[in-house]
Design a protein that fits this description.
It contains 15 helices and ten strands. It is an alpha/beta fold. About 45% of the residues are buried.
Length: about 350
């Protein structure tokens, strides 16, 4: 009996040892590296957490902006470090042209509007917003909330207005385009916008390089021109004293796209993250931060009730994003030479 007990005990210990050895390896599904997925932007923190919970794949966030993502992809083209890239649509189009992205069509690809995706699947929109003024009303200290682009040139807003550098960030370039349109320009005529932004710069324009919504909440930039969804998040989730304004002269839509990186080191995991972002769960998580999903899905009506009325969004137009991409080099050169100098 004693010998039999020892044998049983040894077999039990062997089973435990085997379980301890195999268990973690079986649970380890690897990593997916995504560029430009800051925790505080577009609800990426919740999206990546849910993705990891569903798949067991480690999905760290990344603080880059669109321009930095593009630069990193180009620098690493011969030995890619990222599996997935997320950026403003113009940067996605550019990255696709430079062969930095791989074609991939996940489930629901056909539900995305044709002007918001590459026909081969090199980039596809996951959500969109609109350029808006995000105003910290407490920091204005009694000064009226600006309602138009022209309002921002008033001396009372001197040193209070900012947006992301248009030479680096997708949302910054979109602000540049929207302001140019509002002043009567178009994608072939940038002079109205150059004149306007030169005056705005003379009025103390602030141009941070990275996501700046925290600067609004802290009062460092009382009026941030940015994506509307960032303003709604500050107001309804973070409890900041913020008002969102679609300017009277009009604005533009700002879609964001996701892509599988060409030569991704963890390609299958990258595909899973792209697919998750377009799934019902992924789309609803983005919507929780007041982004409009790329797909026509049912979302909590309480979300849309907290946004500006549809009448305000009639002032938001969809530019030709391909032409917007083609014009970017010229527009950026004009910005550097005529606005910043």
């Amino acid at each position: 009996m004693k010998k039999r007990f020892v044998i049983i005990l040894m077999l039990s210990l062997l089973a435990v040892t085997t379980t301890l050895h195999v268990g973690p390896a079986a649970a380890d599904k690897g990593t997916v590296v995504s560029y430009n997925t800051p925790v505080q932007w577009a609800n990426w923190g919740a999206v990546l957490k849910a993705f990891s919970g569903r798949t067991g794949i480690d999905a760290p966030s990344d603080p880059k902006n669109s321009g930095q993502t593009m630069a990193a992809l180009e620098a690493e083209a011969k030995a890619p470090q990222a599996d997935v890239a997320y950026f403003g649509i113009v940067f996605g189009i550019e990255a696709g042209k430079k062969n930095l992205l791989a074609p991939y069509k996940p489930d629901h690809f056909d539900e995305i509007p044709a002007n918001l995706k590459d026909a081969e699947g090199k980039w596809l929109a996951v959500h969109q917003g609109a350029i808006a003024f995000i105003v910290n009303t407490a920091e204005l200290r009694g000064i009226p909330v600006p309602r138009s682009w022209k309002d921002l040139l008033d001396d009372k807003y001197k040193g209070k207005v900012g947006f992301l550098d248009p030479t680096q960030a997708a949302v910054g370039y979109s602000v540049y385009v929207a302001g140019n349109f509002a002043m009567g320009g178009d994608l072939e005529n940038w002079e109205p916008g150059v004149r306007y932004f030169k005056k705005l710069r003379e009025n103390g324009l602030i141009l941070p390089a990275q996501t700046a919504t925290a600067m609004v909440q802290q009062g460092e930039i009382p009026i941030l021109i940015d994506a509307d969804f960032n303003g709604y998040k500050l107001k309804h989730i973070d409890g900041a004293p913020v008002e969102v304004v679609i300017p009277e002269e009009g604005s533009i839509s700002i879609p964001y796209v996701i892509s599988l990186v060409n030569g991704a080191p963890n390609e299958e995991n990258g595909k899973k993250l792209v697919a998750f972002s377009l799934s019902d769960e992924g789309q609803r998580l983005f919507a929780e931060s007041y982004l409009r999903p790329a797909r026509n899905i049912d979302i909590d009506p309480a979300i849309s009730e907290k946004m500006l009325p549809a009448s305000d969004y009639r002032r938001v137009v969809y530019p030709d994003f391909g032409k917007m991409r083609d014009a970017q080099a010229e527009a950026t050169a004009l910005w550097r030479n005529d606005v910043v100098r």
